[in-house]
Amino acid sequence: MSTPTRNIDWLLQNFISNSFGVISVVVTSSDGLLIASENLDDNATTGLADLLSALASGVHSLAKGASRRLHAGHVSQTLIQMGQVNMYIMEAGDGAILTVMGKPDADPGQLSYEMSLLIQQMPQNLSVPERMVSAGSVQAPR
Question: Distance from the CA of 24 to the CA of which of 63, 84, 110, 119 falls in 20 to 30 A?
Fold first, then answer.
C-alpha cells in the first residue's frame, strides 16, 4: 500500500461514519486504477473495487467528452441512480476520481457537498500524473 493511500484511509472511514446514507467509497485514477477503497465487500475473486474504479473512470471520461462536445463547461459531478444504490462520481484532484455509493434515501445535495469537503481534505500528493506511452513501447498484435 502506498503512502498516499494510507494517508486517506482514515479520511474515507470518517466520511462513511459521518455522512448519512454513504455505503462505500472508492478513489481511483482517471484511467481506472484503484487508489483506495473503504467499506466494500471486496476480495480478489469479486474484484468489486476494481470494477467500480473502471466504471467511474469510464463514466467520468464520457461525461467530460460530452461536455466538451456540447460546450457545456466543467463536469462537476455525475450521478447514476439505480434501484438500491446511487453512484456519485466527482473529480478529486488532477487525475483522481472520488466515487461514493449512497443509499437511495440520501440527500444528493448534502452528499455532494460532503464529497466536496472530503476532496478538499485529501492530500495534494493524491494527484495522479497522466501516463505517457511512447510509440516504441506499444506493440501491434501478431
Answer: 63
> Quick one: 115 exposed, middle or buried, by C-beta within 10 A (0-12, 13-18, 19+)?
buried
Q: What pLDDT sits at residue 47?
A: 86
Condensed to tens digits (0 to 9), the pLDDT of residues 87-104 reads: 999 999 888 999 999 999
Pairwise CA distance, residues 80 & 74, whole Å: 18
Which of 54, 25, 52, 50 lies closest to 38 in space, CA to CA? 25
Matching residue, cell 462536445:
69
Residues 6+ apart with CB under 8 A from 58: 32
Q: Would you say 90 and 115 are in contact if contact means Cβ atoms under 8 Å apart?
A: yes
